[in-house]
Each structure stands twice: as C-alpha cells, then as structure tokens.
Amino acid sequence: MTTSYTAKDITVLEGLDPVRKRPGMYIGGVGSAGLHHLVWEILDNAIDEAMNGHASSIGVVLHADGCSLSVTDDGRGIPVDKHPQTGKSALEVIFTMLHAGGKFGQGNYKTAGGLHGVGASVVNALSKELVATVKRDGAVWEQRFRQGKPAGALKRLGSARGSGTTVYFHPDPTVFPKIEFEPAVIRERLEIASYLHKGLTVVFDDQSNGRKETFQHAEGLADFARKLVAERSLRPVHDAPFTLIKENGLRAEVVLQWTEATDELVKSYVNGIPTGSGGTHENGLRAGLGKAVRNYIETHNLSPKGVTLGADDIREGLVGLLSVFLEEPQFQGQTKDRLNNPEVLSAVDSMIRPALEQWLNENRSVAEAIVGRIVLAARAREASRAAQQEVSRKSATSNRLTLPGKLSDCTSPSRPDSEIFIVEGDSAGGSAKQGRDRARQAILPLRGKVLNAESASLAKVLENKELSDLVTALGCGLGKAFDIARLRYGKVIILADADSDGNHIATLLLTFIYRHMPQLMARGHVYLAQPPLYRIDIGKQTHWALDDAQRDAILARQGQPGPGRPTPEITRFKGLGEMMPKVLWETTMNPKTRRLLRVEIADQLMTDRVINELMGRDASARFRFIMDRAEEAEELDV
Length: 638
Ligand code: 1YM
Description:
By secondary structure, the protein is of the alpha+beta class.
C-alpha cells in the first residue's frame, strides 16, 4: 500500500515566526472561522491517517472550559525518530517548523488542499499550549509546547500497547480575541466526516455540554443519502440507490437516488471538504449521468413522443452525492469552494457513465421507474411552459375570455395596489363579488377540492382545476417557470371561513404556494383575510369580533347590562356565505377597516438558495402570520 514515512521525508522550510506575525495568511483570520480552522487542521491529519488505511477511529473532546480541545486517532502515531537535517525528532519538526509534510503522489491523499493543508505547526504556533502524545513502537511519548516553542524535550513516558496520536491544544488568547468553540459546528463537521469515510468511527465528547455522540456509517454516502431523503420527507422512486466507488488517478464515490421531489439536491466534496459551488467534479457527474440515462432510454426505445428530455428533467428529484479525493486539488471562487482541476471532469464522467448504464440495465424495473419519473418531469415542464405561455398570451392581449371563467377580475389588474381574494365557496364568492371595490379587487371562488400539494408533482398540480385556475389568474407561472414580474395582483388574499374547514382550505392553499411558488411568500404577497366570527349589537352600535377572546373583551368593556344599558345581541356567523356583501366589505375587505395577516415562511432568511432548499423540505412550523398593520403588530406562530 503506502510506503512508510520517516523523518528524512520532511522538507523543512522555516520556523513559525511568520505564522504568529500574520495568522490571517495561514488560517484566514482570527475570528470564529479562523479559530475553528485550528480544529480542522488537526482533525484533517487524523482523517488522513484513517483515509490511508491506518486508523479506524477518531475522537474529539471539547473540554469543559469550552476553549480547549483534544483530537485522538488510532493510527500509526506521528513518527518520533530523529530528523537527519535538523537533529530533532520528526515530531518536533512537524510541530515547530513550516514544512512540506509527508509524501504524496504514491496513493496517499491529504484531506484538505490549498487553504487547509497548512498543518500541525500552524496550530502549534497559534496555541498558548499544545501537547502531542504518541503511542508507537511499544512506548508512549509526549512533548509539550507553548506558543509554538518546545516547553521541554520529547519524553518517553513509559511502555504502551497499540499506536495512535493525541493532540491537545488551547488557542492563544493573545492571537484570538474570543476563544469559544461552537459544538454544533464541530459536530456537523464530524458527522459529515463519518459519512465520507465509510466505517470510520468518530466520537464527539462535548464536555462543555456533557454530551457524547458516536458517528459511524457502514454504508457511508448511501447512509447520507438515506438521511437526506428521510429528513426532507422525500418519496423515493426506487429502493436501493445507485452506488459507485472507483479509483483511477483519483478516488471517487457516488450515490444517486431519484425521488418525487421537484428539484435536485446534489452535494459534493473534495478531499472531505464540502464544495458548495460545485466545480469540475460535479460537472463530470452531471455529464456522465446524463449520457448514461439517455443511452439507456435510446437503447430501449423509451423516448417519449412529443417532448424532448432536458438535462434538468433527468435530474429532477435526484439526490446525488459525490465525494472525490485527489492529490492536488485546486480551488477557485471567492470562498474557494469550487473545484477547478480540468482533468477531473472527464475522469468522473468516464467513471460514472458505464457504471450507471450497466446498473440501469441490470435493474430493469428500477430503470423503468426512473425513466418514468424523468418523462413525467419533462411533460410537467412542458405543461407548465404551455400554461405559462397561455398566461403571457392572455395578459399580452388582455383577452379576458382566456382567464378562468369563474374569476371576477378587477378593472385594472397589474397595479401594485390590486388584490385577488381567493374565496371558499360560491355563496361567499357571490357576497365578496358584490361587496368589493371593482377597480382593484378580483374574486376567485373555489368550488372543488384543493389538492394537497405537499408532495404532489407539478403535473398533478396542473391537473387540479382549482389550482390551475389560481395559477392562470395569478399569471406568474410556478415551479421553475415562476416569474414574479408577471404577477397580476399586489396582494393575494385567502378568504376562508373562520372554522376548521376554512382553516384546512387555507392550509392547503398556503401549502400549494409554499411548495410551488415560495417566492410569492418570501416577497410578502400572500395574506390571510380575517373575517369576523361574531357580530355583537349593543343598542345602536355594532361590533365585530374575530374570535371568542375579542367577543369577551367587547362584552367586558360594555359592562353588565342594567337600567339604561341594553343587553348585547350576539350573532355567530356560520360561514362567510351568510354575510351580507356590505358587512363582508366593511369587516374584511375594506382596506381602511379590515385586518390582514401577512404570511411569511418562518425562521428563514429568504435568499434564493434557501427558497430552492425549501421547495423540497418538510417543515411543520413553516408559516408565520404577521398582523398587517404595524400599530397592531402581533405575531401568531402556527
Ligand atoms: C490527532 C492528529 O496527526 N495523526 C497522524 C499524523 C501523522 C501520521 C500518523 C503518520 C504519517 C505518516 C507516517 C506518513 C503525520 N502527519 C504528518 C504531517 N493526528 C495525527 N498519524 N507515519 C505516521 O504520512 O507517511 C507527518 S506524520 F506532516 F503530514 F503532518
């Protein structure tokens, strides 16, 4: 396998003064990211040892003080023999000099490239105290350092069985303004490492919180894919995922799982580091995958009539994981999280294509399910495009005949202050239509059942009359074809009964919007109307109450009936349909007197990236309702 490393292999460059002078050059900065960088450096050395087949278990202890750490592996132990060039032990050289590390290019991979691979000496230079303990050749050795300088010689502490390395360090407070490790950040990194390195046992002992966790995944990335699918409640299209591990010039591991989700989720890693911006390895995956699937479809004459399969259709609903290890990764981009090695594209492509094609051929029923899924995606895209075109055509020619028949449009849609009320039921729709401000308010009554869009495909959604009418009326398309610029109304207001059926319908509509046009919510276009539940007549005065609490408050304000004080008359509305148009206007629709709840997506920063993620995720507390009028700002969490 690998040739053994000895002290003579270390090429010494220089001492550690430059690191203490300009820490930012070596770890990026002295903030929290830089601080955690120290952990990744030591951890990467332990993972390297595992990756090259010498260690099977790694432990990280975050000590109770929250600002010091120990990392342990059960590998060969850092060499302690004498380094001929300097006369010092290899261990001391590794921790006290900027050096060129061990040997690569002989089947040895190093976890981190470029930015990361700066080594144990940098951590030592930036630590108030560091202790390296090594078990090797039947003995246990220890050397202590302060601010990168030996605090004593390498000592043989006694005899020991087994082998391994432990590095304890406490970052230097004169370098880092704030020393506070974040357990969640460390935990996440360790968990991912356990998926990327199949079988590796990773223990995180967080003594600052008294929590200890072990991560171990016999099936590595396949387990990771399973976790992602479960976490997002995605419905798989087939059982066992496609898996591939191959080594030719580089080591690649791939897992592919198609699901019924409407987007794709591809995560990639290079030498154990997440590549959030993709790069040549991801492009190789997409190329190989596309060709394999197309070849299969052509060979078996499965091409659908009337639609062409796009690359996006092939990957719709795909959960794809790709991990590659290469000797000299080159990263690009502002955050250095995009792989740039050109040779990797064809290497990954040519590994995946034949293997995936063979897998499809050997698993015909699985292949059929996947192809079915892809054809459906293409048809849905085609249908959505057609619906989109139809809507554009209509709004371009303002040909009202092609809008849904039951829509009572306003005379001037597309104004920022125009509104559409989506109203439950025909009779309520009738009241709303009579009561409205025709110039600005459109009414769309819902008659049939609204489909539960929780995990329905785009095609299913478009088959549902109520939803497709809504899409046509809104004018902005949905899914990937969504275009907010075409939205025909400034506010989309759901007007449902104040009872449990009404709540159900509102939830279905919100779920549909959340799943297929989340941008509408993110941009604050979605509202819930607040029709009153009670009418309270007291003498000549009429009050409206949204709920029992408001009713009680109104009654309490009134005081006990008595001489000269009339008895309140309370009417509970059975449904919106019973409300006179004028009453509906006054209480619920008139912008001057009504109250609306704006619907937001709870706890999310609404970047496009998050929206994309949300389109495939299940979250129970997903909405937040905000009272529209600032003076009454009141949050109701659901
Ligand atoms: C908790 C941190 O550093 N383990 C570790 C490090 C090394 C070796 C084994 C090792 C490597 C080799 C031969 C070789 C080393 N890393 C370096 C350097 N754990 C931890 N375990 N024998 C032992 O690479 O051939 C030198 S030795 F320089 F890369 F950091």
